[in-house]
Amino acid sequence: MVAADGTLLEMNPAGLAMIEVDSAVEVIGKSVYSLIAPEDRETFRTMNEIVCQGSKGTMQFEIVTCRGNRRWMETHAVPLRDEKNGNVVQLAITRDITQHKQSEAELRRLNRSLQTLSNCNQVIVRAKQESSLLENICQILIEVGGYRFAWVGFAENDTHRSIRPVAQAGYEDGYLQSLNLTWSDTVRGQSPTEIAICTGEISIVQNILIDPKYEIWRSQANLQGYASTIALPLKDRGIAFGVLNIYSTEVNTFDADEVKLLEELAQDLTYGIVALQNQRDRSFAETALRESEASYKQLIELCPEAIFIQSEGKFVFLNSAAIQLFGATKAEELLNKQILDFVHPNSQTLVRERIKYLREVQQPIPLLEEEWLRLDGTTIDLEVVAAPFVYQDKLAAQVVARDISERKQTEKALHKANNELELRVAERTAELITVNRQLQAELDERQRTEEALRVSQTRFEGILGIADDAIISINACQGITLFNQGAEKIFGYSAAEILGQTLEVLLPQRFAQVHRQHVVDFGKSPNLARRMGERREIFGRRKDGTEFPAEASISKLNIEKETVYTVILRDITARKQIERMKDEFVSVVSHELRTPLTSIHGSLGMLASGLLQPDSEQGKRLLEIATDSTERLVRLINDILDIERIESGKVKMEREICNLAELIGSAVNIMQPIAKGAGVTLSISSLPVQIWADPDRIVQTLTNLLSNAIKFSPGTTVWLTAQQQEDEVLLTVKDTGRGIPADKVNSIFERFQQVDSSDSRDRDGTGLGLAICQSIVQQHGGRIWVESVLGEGSRFYLTLPILTVSQTIEPEHSLTPHSAPIKHSALVLVCDDDPIIRIELQTLLERGGYRVVTVATGKEAIALAAAQHPDVILLDLLMPGMNGWETMALLKERVDTKDIPIIICSVYKPTTTSQPSADFVDWLSKPVQESYLLQSLKQAIAKPCKRVCILIVEDDNDLAELLITLFERHEFETFLAKTGREAIRKSQQVNPDLIILDLILPESDGFAVVDWLQQHNHLCNIPVVIYSAKDLDESERKRLKLGHTEFLTKGRVTTQEFEQRVMELLQRITYQPTEC
After folding, report:
1. Which Gene Ontology terms describe the biological processes this protein takes part in (predicted)?
2. Which tens digits make up the pLDDT trace of 47-66?
3. Looking at the domain covering 444-571, what would its CATH class be?
4. Does the pTM exceed 0.70?
5. Helix H or strand E encompassing 474
6. pLDDT tens-digit readout, 523-550
7. Among the four residues 26, 429, 861, 909, which has the most C-beta atoms within 10 Å?
């Protein structure tokens, strides 16, 4: 019971238990208002007054127990008159509803969370942009979820591994800026946000005030009114890319149920973000694809080459060029027609094989030549490349074709014309000089005409700015009125500086008065134009005072009673230098040619006269002089041709991967006898690095430098060292000879430059060696220079780039042959991807008494050849992965397999274009006939015991007689053909083991001979030595390939070198069985 003033009059034990007191004495007589929660105190006071006035009341309120705990109570109060004093008091029946209130709060909170999740899901479903999605989610968490603050952050892969806020809502007042969040593994990186990013797990702080993990950020959180927080990772494929952060004003907000709902929200949000990103990426990709398809289609249509797509053996697409190529006017005339209907019968097998290869192997086809048909039935020659292609979800092939009919028709005539033209170059030289002089005269006349025309076109409009010559106009007082850009470049003055000054400023002082008077006299003469300097040298003076030689012409034009003189002046400094160099070159070359020719003529003349006998001591000496002079003359001519061809780019460096130590060893081996003869010790410091170089040219350079060092350092030591410097190698050739004067160091690499003019006689030099060395080194991307001290010696340096990547192929694994080997019989390796063909060949060969092993790929063939060293290899060309050409090239590169004979077995026919190398001994076309196969194997494994037969094709009688004598010394059987037709006839008659072939021949040249031999199976693999004075480019060398082919240039190899090379070739290609 409670009195009207709030005094507690009476309370039963249940009530005492509710307010947590042990005895009624502690509360009876005291104000009941002290037990009411402050926020409910006035409401309870009002109700108490109303009840004491005689009304009833019911109220729910919160109390603070004597122990400080809060509890919810529900009271039903009625008025009751006190019997003692008659006052009305409140009789309250109260029950504890704390648990009920808590359940209601929890239910409201869960409802709020579910509503939040529902609203967020609706936003996620409707979201079009990522930024608006994230902002709306944060806003819903605040407005519906009732949280204090929410924000989303993304993990950045920057240097600091920072976490970038991308959306937020609620109260934060600078809180985010103070966090300085990072997901790196640091002391600061331990906040819930950072832990969620790093671990991918949910991180919760239920009480910010007491949780030690939140100590760093506690003060800022308290200022914002945050009591608890949760960080939920946003994960895609198990990796956290962002985090959703939520802050509450109450502690212990995030219980298990709410965490589960928020985790579901985070997963839904992740899905929404990823979906929007995927949608954006897909949109970008679709746009890019449409643009790419449009560009591709436009490119195909604009391409001048014929492009068509074939699917299921039919045309399904053709560009404009393809429609025109096949003689149609529109694509419909060709679409859905059979491809093979347009293939010439000669190419039917080849095209079918190509289509099969594209369908089964699905690899691009290299360039092929095929014959096709137009709609009208006419034949066209095409170059074709093809690649597998998916068209409208079907496997197809895209083909690019080029019409080469005209080229094929003119190729042969063009080659013949080029050869005939080269034969007559020497004869035409004099005529060309005459024609050039006539052309020069015509050009001079044309120039004078053009100059007169320019004068009449109002002071050379439109030409002044681009003319390299100086064009200067002066008035009657010789004041300069026009000064073009060419004049600015030549004289060094700008037009602004020179206009208005007299012409004398551009002339040397000693010529100024003469030129002034010349202009005056020219003005009085009736001539309108006159060349100056025809009989005397003219000089100009630049702004810096230097003088230069010049050619000049002058003209005059009367414009409105005013005479204007125009001078056209050309700086001929460069021409003068070229003329001087030409004169020096002619002088030196004529001297160097006449000297050995005089020695040869004198020596042979004395012997021919009979004054001396050839076998006498003096006669032998004269023959030695003639021989030495001949070698010197050949060396000089070769050096002159070498440097011209190298510098003009006509000589292609035959680069390959070389071991520098081996090249140095070759050069030293060549020079060792010469050094020994001169009493010189060679000290070598090598380096086993790989370079990409022409080995012959590098050895030539090193031997030249070593030769010079030996010549000028007799009886001493010459050093050759190599050391690596980053990505290049530095080679040094050092001697202790007489050295080079300082004024010669910069010119020593020029042509015909020697330290002493007597060196060409005393040291047997031409003055071209170092110039050739410089050209070779520069062609290899290197540098060459010299350092020298007079009287102490010289050091020549050269650099070459180092090859940093090398490729080698090793056998992947050992292979087991498909059949057991038979002892003492020849072993044949069959490589073909078709299992039926492998079985047929194996059965056929075993029936012929051979041991057989079979493989399906090129890699297996290389590995098995290295492991078992078969006597011969049968090789298919069209194989998946590594084709036959690539397999053969790798077999010939390896030391342990390069000498194994290879026989090609292919559906292709042997033609010039289908034989890129001569590394095979025979070519058999499928289907293979047993007799041809066994005969080819017999020839490949062992040749019959007979004398070596050599066919010499040479129209020069003296050289032919020399070659016949040379070979007969070795008991070789020789035959001579002096014309191309005779060579073709005799090659059929004698079936030679080797052909020595000149190219410049009457009645069909050497190219025609090779073309004919290539068309005959039993002759197309004959080894040949091309021995000609003609310089050949790479395409001509390929055209001349037969069997093993060597190229030797007349005049560049001595007779001894020629003999050695031919003997080495014969040793490789011939084999004498022991039973013979």
Report:
1. regulation of DNA-templated transcription
2. 898 989 888 888 989 999 98
3. alpha beta
4. no
5. strand 470-474
6. 777 776 655 444 456 889 999 999 999 8
7. 861
